[in-house]
Amino acid sequence: MLRDVRMRQNEERARRAPCTDGAACRRQHCDGWHALDLVFCQRTGKPLHENNVRNRDLYPLCKKLGLPWRRALHNMRHGHGSHLLERGVPLRTVAERLGHKDPAFTARVYAHVIRSQAQAAAAVSAMLKEARESLLPSCYPQREGAIRANP
Ligand SMILES: [Zn+2]
User: Fold this and answer.
1) 13, 24, 62, 63: most buried by Cβ count inside 10 Å?
2) How many CB atoms sit inside 10 A of residue 68's CB?
3) Closest by Cα among 96, 93, 95, 87 to 116
């Protein structure tokens, strides 16, 4: 898919004369090519407009898939943060990625994820304790013996 996008971009680039203003171009209907090296862009190489992405692409896709669409971008952002935390990415890194100045804010917003991580950690801890207790009786006599054998 990305290869198709890149191919279409190359075709557009070849068809259009480069805009002399480049990234600084603010003309809404400029027809030149803007070499901004974006992965997804308009036919002129300019950045996509947030509202167009939302209304033309994201909302129809959500509706088609039966997903909630009203806060789709926000939900995707929140989903992204939740998945990162669930997979063990440090809170500070997630906060930086989401543009939060204070990781404490991230911790409050994603408290549900952090709580479930704490529950998972408690479950692992309980399993380790159980495993240690079931192994100890068979390990101890050998250790004691080893210590006595080499005073
Ligand atoms: Zn231009």
Assistant:
1) 62
2) 9
3) 87
Full-model pTM: 0.56
CA of 114 to the centre of ligand 1 (A): 47
Question: Cα of 28 to ligand 1 centre, how many Å?
Answer: 8
Ligand 1 center–CA 24 separation, angstroms = 8
Per-residue pLDDT of the chain (151 residues; tens, 9 = 90+): 889 989 999 999 999 999 999 889 999 899 999 999 898 899 999 999 889 999 998 999 999 999 888 888 888 899 999 999 999 999 999 999 999 999 999 999 999 888 888 888 899 889 888 888 887 766 555 555 555 554 4
Where exactly are the structural domains of the chain? 71-151
For 9, the enclosing helix (H) or strand (E) is helix 2-15
Please tell me the distance between residue 58's alpha carbon and the centre of ligand 1 in angstroms: 26
What's the 46 CA to ligand 1 centre distance in angstroms? 8
